[in-house]
């Protein structure tokens, strides 16, 4: 099937997706916070909204990157190099600044699930880091000479969501324990930071060592 990358590519992308899913960020903060303060249905609604946003990011990234590749393989290569630098910057920032994780405090008014869903969607769509990340991260897993790069980019973006679902569902089901653990355990957060930094740096190095082939 032309949209399926090689198994080694899928395996490497899966490792990265797992680390990204488990690293606390705005989406995780929202759906864990909503679960703790408003119940599991609210948590699932927030996660569904964020996942819908990821589908939009995937579609736009695949279409845009395919257009860049079709127009100029040189421009696509430049984008991959920029992506390499961005991944290194993310790695450095993760080590220097750490992960911010906070839950909503105080009394929370009841909120319709539709509103929670839209909030999750908006937070994901309007997060500039996610936009830049998709545009710079996905190209690392396709070759500039691949005639089927577009379908593969789209597949990888959707695969990211598939990988995230079981981990996110498990986090929502155990939200109170996980939230309490993360708040009480700065060492655990630092472990996530270093793991995230290691994965990003590894893919940056991979790009540098294979770009000339």
TrEMBL record:
<feature type="transmembrane region" description="Helical">
    <location>
        <begin position="75"/>
        <end position="95"/>
    </location>
</feature>
<feature type="transmembrane region" description="Helical">
    <location>
        <begin position="44"/>
        <end position="69"/>
    </location>
</feature>
<keyword id="KW-1003">Cell membrane</keyword>
<feature type="transmembrane region" description="Helical">
    <location>
        <begin position="191"/>
        <end position="209"/>
    </location>
</feature>
<feature type="transmembrane region" description="Helical">
    <location>
        <begin position="116"/>
        <end position="138"/>
    </location>
</feature>
<protein>
    <submittedName>
        <fullName>LysE family translocator</fullName>
    </submittedName>
</protein>
<feature type="transmembrane region" description="Helical">
    <location>
        <begin position="158"/>
        <end position="179"/>
    </location>
</feature>
<dbReference type="GO" id="GO:0005886">
    <property type="term" value="C:plasma membrane"/>
</dbReference>
<feature type="transmembrane region" description="Helical">
    <location>
        <begin position="6"/>
        <end position="23"/>
    </location>
</feature>
<keyword id="KW-0472">Membrane</keyword>
<dbReference type="GO" id="GO:0015171">
    <property type="term" value="F:amino acid transmembrane transporter activity"/>
</dbReference>
<dbReference type="InterPro" id="IPR001123">
    <property type="entry name" value="LeuE-type"/>
</dbReference>
<keyword id="KW-1133">Transmembrane helix</keyword>
<keyword id="KW-0812">Transmembrane</keyword>
<dbReference type="Pfam" id="PF01810">
    <property type="entry name" value="LysE"/>
</dbReference>
